[in-house]
Protein: 23S rRNA (Uracil1939-C5)-methyltransferase
Amino acid sequence: MTKRKDRGYKKSNNKPKSQPKGKSKNFKANPNNRPQQSKKGVTAEFTCRGLSSEGKGLIEWEGKQLEVANLLPGEKAEVQIIKKGRYFNAELKRLIQTSDDRVQPPFKDHESGGCQIQHMKYEAQARFKQKVVDNLMKPFGKAKPIITMDHPFDYRNKNVMTFGLNKKRQIISGLYAPNSHRIIPMDGSIIHDQKADKIIQTVTQLAKSFKLQPYDEDTGQGFLRHVMVKVGKQSGEIMVVLVAASPMFKGKNNFIKALRKDHPEITTILLNINNRNDSMVLGEQEKVLFGKGTIIDTLCGLEFEISAKSFYQINPVQTEKLYSRAIELADLSGEETVVDAYCGIGTIGLVASQKAGNVIGIELNKGAVRDAIRNSKRNGIKNARFYQADAGEFMVQMAKHNDHVDVVFMDPPRSGSDEAFLSSLAKLKPKRIVYVSCNPETQVRDLKYLSKNGYKVEEIQPVDMFPQTSHIEAVTLLTRK
Ligand code: SAH
Structure:
């Protein structure tokens, strides 16, 4: 198990173990170091020639470009290539020569696929994301420099770990290995809230002493599945959700007592029952074991009540920067009719409502709409209405009724928007569209559509919402031609 020492980067200790004699200028296997063929595939030496859009190192092998996790441009490494069906799987075996951009991360998150680029210096991460956005957005103009995070660690307000057994059959907590249900034991993550990680460790220790069994997906036996800790970064409130396969919690009262004794900072504890067979962390049913069942957080000066199940941006520091930029781009005067499409719990719309005439929020998820309405009341906001609907269908109806809209914020899921939505936008003809996206590839697709249908991309602003991971967020402004 990796040990937590400090949150900053340590200097890389991936010292070259042997210096290659000849310089290998091409990117093919080094002839001095012939490829080794074995049952397990081919192992050979490569030089990494760039990064994929997911932050993986690129190598060339027999005319094919392969991706290698945890490898940086310019680095020399021994890589094992295994054929898997029609694909080739390339895995880093040993680093021979390391890059100056490499740092030694304190946790094994990259193995879990969670922090795919935590081995990269933060400056290099920013450069990488900028380049991906620049390349994708080329048809629309030059992107602004990415808005980075001052302390790109410990930022998550929602922290989840999963329980399992180690070889000695003791309960452990950690994260799943990629594409598998094997748990990599971890006592923290570089992007988790530090208090949350300590609470998760205590829960794991208590589970051991209370002899709670982890749930086994294969047999359906056992009790504890996950622990989720949500933190109100500004309020200091903390929610602990124990996710279990059944409501029969043996020793519940003593468990809660012990947990609260070690962590008096916890403000509420819930038991969530999840007996499903998919990869969702939370089930439908929940029971408040202590406190009021929700926490409060403050974002852009507004208060939001967050429940265990509600969707909420996971990096509040960068979310404030993203929303401020989005609202600046909307250039509101106080009179406009504003649509907040794909609004989640209404955060963008509620922040914008202070500078707009009225706001119409549209969101598919019922619970999120309920949260949005509750949050607008909580903040005394009277000029925002929220509707539970498919954003595309709702916009089609608005276009049919010739409704008047001045500004549209849209923040669709990774798959992007759809033609119903975009074609209705073109009919409604808002002056400005502010498009927030967590997937620049689908964003580019939608921007192309809007460019052909009356709009011009005026500004492209990447924001680093997810440091240490390869995820990229960008906000763009479109105006009517
Ligand atoms: N703007 C919010 C949420 C963005 S996440 C925020 O900043 O927090 C995208 C949201 O789109 C999710 O809440 C998801 O439930 C919602 N969504 C997904 N498909 C949708 C659809 N077809 N119509 C409306 N909302 C949708």
The domain at 158-297 is CATH 2.40.50.1070 (OB fold (Dihydrolipoamide Acetyltransferase, E2P)). The pocket of S-adenosyl-L-homocysteine is lined by residues 311, 313, 342-344, 347-348, 362-365, 368, 390-391, 411-413 (CB under 6 Å). The chain has ten helices and 24 strands. The chain has three domains: 20-102, 128-151+315-480, 158-297.
